[in-house]
What we know:
Elements: E1 15-16, E2 19-21, E3 24-26, E4 33-37, E5 44-49, H1 53-72, H2 75-91, H3 93-104, H4 108-128, E6 136-137, E7 143-151, E8 154-158, H5 164-170, H6 173-177, E9 181-185, H7 192-201, E10 210-212, H8 217-225, E11 232-236, H9 239-249, E12 255-259, E13 265-268, H10 274-284, H11 287-290, E14 300-304, H12 308-321, H13 340-355, E15 359-362, E16 379-382, H14 389-392, E17 399-405, H15 408-416, E18 423-427, H16 431-440, E19 445-448, E20 467-468, H17 474-479, E21 481-489
Parallel strand pairs: 1-5, 8-9, 8-11, 9-10, 11-12, 13-14, 13-18, 14-17, 16-17, 18-19
Antiparallel strand pairs: 2-3, 4-5, 6-7, 7-21, 12-20, 15-16
Helix pairs in contact: 1-8, 2-4, 3-4, 3-7, 4-5, 5-7, 10-12
Amino acid sequence: MTRVLGNVGRGKAPVHAQMSIGGQWRDAASGDRLDCIDPTTEELLGTVPAGGAADADLAVQAAQEASGAWRALGWTRRAALLRGLAAAVAEAAEPLALLDVLDSGNPIAGMRGDLESTVRELHYYAGLAGQTHGTSTPTGAETVSFTQREPYGVVVRIVPFNHPFKFACGKAAAALAAGNAVIVKPGEQTSLSAIALAEVAEAVLPPGVLTVVTGTGAELGEALVAHPDVQRVAFTGSVPTGRRILAAAARNLAHVTLELGGKNPLIVCPDVDPRKAAHDAVASMNIARSNGQSCGSTSRIYVHERIRDAFTDALVERVRELRVGDPCDETNDVGPVAFAAHHARVLDHIERAKASGATVATGGSRPFGLDRGYFVEPTVFTDVTDDMPIAREEVFGPVMAVMGFSDLDDAVRRANDTQYGLTANVYTRDLRVAHRLADRLQAGYVYVNGTGRRPPGSPFGGWKASGLGKENSHEELLSYTREKTITITLPADDPDGS
Length: 498
């Protein structure tokens, strides 16, 4: 096999990557492959296996075979191995970050941040690995009743294209810490760094504990989710795909958690510095981290009429300062979106916004001079109404819509008028307003004066169509276990005293 790490790059021969199943490197049973395209140059970086049902069977079998010994290691040994994986990832951080830049188009600074975050997440769950203990129930002297938490055994973890390595590795950490063998299926458009994860992990983890398989969601993803021996599935991605996964997993009544999309509101109150709020609004979009391809981006901005003009001017000024270009160049802030179909989809959102009457304050097309690559100008729309698609549909790109409000109650009502409920953000200096709005906003995570950064351990997950369950927390660790109740009736005393 050709190793991915260190062998992918512009000017290099395309790599022929393989999947890691049970400690063995394999092509797809069908022999089919998927192209990996550099979204900056539109050139071929390599190919990965297009796995299907037969490969899903092999992956589940390998994970089953590895899961018993992994659980039997005990939490202290598993924690030590997770820390070992964190060290190995940290050692390979720079080539891993560059691999994601080439494969996804995300800026190099953002991908370095992703690697740092991944290492922290591995250490966090290594530290929590022993916190899966049960409880006891008060009983009489002749009965003992208690619970214990046991891993599911096999966990399928399907992750999207926007933070390839961070999600492939970091989102496997809780399930591994809880004692499960994990099958990771990365986004088919950005699979290379997940394969590199398997290359790094094979020197640390026992064979089969972490399997990485590649393929489309419609073929491989469906086969994994519907597999009768998979009782735990976790997915990060779009709402439509989340609904399909939930339906497929229902055949086996598998436990499913979903971290889905958002059309997240930012309410800017009149007591803040509009320039500071505008700069933070751009940071909250994750444009300089993942080109605005973030489920948590605050793309729907409600600004009090008293400061609306000043805020909008500062927002447009800040967005125009962002440098768009090759994401390998550290002087650039924004790279291309991840793949051609998504590029077309984002540009279509922009054109529909124009057609519906919204005004382009800045951006609105492919950047001048960048005729190659999947680039989109960071875009701000004004004159937006709540019924326009740009105010209701998730774009998943560097596009913001600015609207005004005069009454806070009206702002909250409009912010909540959406199928989504992932995050919300309030900018104010008034603690009473902050508490009141945070309490009323229908979202799983509410920031006050935030920029989308979350402290380790703070539960993250959506309401409504934005998902089921929580991640990045103790709750996530427990979600990868099942609770068993054991009640023991003690034998009666032997009347003979024997």
